[in-house]
């Protein structure tokens, strides 16, 4: 998968630095999910409150991705990433030193953790700008595999919370971020010949292009499903199957790893067979998996297998969408990454909060999971509608520029 031409085409230290920064940023972005069982015991939270608690960082990250996308095009991805990392580390240390004494203070921390979620709009352009179109899927898949950071939170946070208390886990999370920060500062480099900065009105002009909205919709399902489940699964396994928080965290980590490490595979498949073909298969599999997951499995192991299957499909879809985005919007990749990433986060906020609402109102997560399976089918229908036009218009533009596309 890592061909000689790929290794020669870009800048490997930047790609790996982008991955590490993205990975550990995602670790803290979803931190409230793995800590959710412990936090809910401290404040006596109901299912809807737990759903909102894990959804707030996702929503905050969604909005801030647009801000980060604009900053990337104005001051470059490296400086934007440095600013974001400093804000997150300061927020974690402040929350640890001062303590969190109410549910509303936890929600306020969730807003700050959204800055870590905005790392998506930094890491992907940082990597993307070094690579030609034929390697975009794999490069962005590797950088985007930083989604696996959500698994690190699920693996370690619940156990550490039992050992040192959940508030101290928040402070400890700043330590690996500091390591990633040093690596990022030393090894990451902005690509030469970046696009010229544009006025804000020019950024917003991207929204006049229908293709931007289609990509936003497609990603709201693939990434929204991935991050929404990543944030909610520890609470889900605890509530549905009575697993202790630590065991629920291990199960969550397995699901997240499945989705994260299939992302580069999805990008590579999109490079080879086309992003449209890859996404078509992805949405069918994701809808099937989510629909099956909505019917409570008789054993936790069956539930784990079904959710891992669903997360793998969604992870592959994340890589495939970002094989398409730079082919259509290479000059505006910073703001497009922000816009597409924003809607991905909004999809995650919807799923996480709706799961909590469904559990609170009906005693089951089924309605929330079925609704998101329906969204996957909607995305499939939309993709089927636009794919013929994309192949004609994008292909003509690429041919005029002397570039070969795989759609």
Automatic annotation (TrEMBL):
Superkingdom per UniProt: Bacteria
Main subcellular localisation: membrane
InterPro entries in UniProt: MFS (IPR011701), MFS_dom (IPR020846), MFS_trans_sf (IPR036259), NO3_transporter (IPR044772)
Topology with respect to the bilayer: Multi-pass membrane protein
Stretches assigned to the Major facilitator superfamily (MFS) profile domain: 13-391
GO cellular component: membrane
Transmembrane segments: 12-32, 52-72, 81-100, 106-126, 138-157, 169-191, 212-237, 274-295, 301-321, 333-353, 365-386
Subcellular compartments: Membrane
GO molecular function terms listed in the Swiss-Prot or TrEMBL record: nitrate transmembrane transporter activity
Family designation: Belongs to the major facilitator superfamily. Nitrate/nitrite porter (TC 2.A.1.8) family.
PANTHER family: HIGH-AFFINITY NITRATE TRANSPORTER 2.3
Protein name: MFS transporter
Source organism per UniProt: Phenylobacterium deserti
């Amino acid at each position: 998968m890592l061909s000689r031409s790929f290794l020669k085409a870009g800048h490997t230290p930047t790609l790996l630095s982008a991955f590490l920064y993205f990975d550990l940023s995602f670790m803290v972005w979803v931190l409230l999910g793995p800590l959710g069982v412990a936090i809910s015991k401290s404040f006596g939270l109901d299912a809807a409150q737990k759903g909102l608690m894990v959804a707030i960082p996702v929503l905050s990250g969604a909005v801030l991705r647009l801000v980060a996308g604009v900053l990337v095009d104005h001051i470059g991805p490296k400086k934007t990433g440095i600013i974001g990392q400093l804000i997150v580390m300061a927020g974690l240390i402040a929350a640890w030193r001062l303590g969190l004494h109410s549910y509303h203070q936890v929600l306020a921390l969730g807003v700050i953790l959204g800055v870590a979620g905005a790392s998506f709009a930094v890491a992907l352009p940082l990597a993307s700008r070094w690579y030609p179109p034929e390697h975009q899927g794999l490069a962005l898949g590797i950088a985007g595999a930083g989604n696996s950071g959500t698994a690190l939170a699920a693996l370690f946070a619940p156990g550490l919370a039992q050992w040192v208390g959940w508030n101290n886990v928040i402070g400890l999370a700043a330590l690996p971020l500091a390591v990633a920060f040093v690596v990022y500062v030393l090894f990451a480099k902005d690509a030469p010949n970046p696009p010229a900065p544009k006025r804000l009105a020019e950024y917003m002009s991207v929204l006049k292009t229908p293709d931007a909205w289609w990509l936003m919709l497609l990603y709201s399902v693939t990434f929204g499903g991935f991050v929404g489940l990543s944030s909610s699964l520890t609470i889900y396994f605890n509530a549905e199957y009575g697993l202790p928080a630590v065991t629920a965290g291990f199960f969550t980590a397995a699901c997240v790893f499945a989705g994260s490490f299939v992302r580069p595979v999805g990008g590579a498949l999109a490079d080879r067979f086309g992003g449209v073909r890859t996404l078509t298969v992805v949405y069918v599999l994701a809808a099937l998996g989510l629909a099956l997951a909505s019917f409570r499995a008789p054993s936790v192991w069956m539930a784990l297998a079904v959710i891992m299957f669903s997360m793998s499909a969604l992870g592959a879809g994340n890589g495939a969408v970002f094989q398409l985005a730079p082919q259509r919007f290479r000059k505006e990749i910073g703001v497009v990454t922000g816009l597409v990433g924003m809607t991905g986060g909004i999809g995650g906020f919807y799923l996480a909060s709706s799961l909590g609402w469904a559990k609170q109102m009906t005693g089951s997560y089924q309605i929330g999971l079925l609704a998101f399976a329906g969204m996957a089918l909607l995305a499939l229908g939309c993709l089927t509608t636009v794919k013929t036009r994309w192949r004609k218009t994008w292909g003509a533009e690429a041919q005029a520029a002397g570039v070969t596309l795989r759609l």
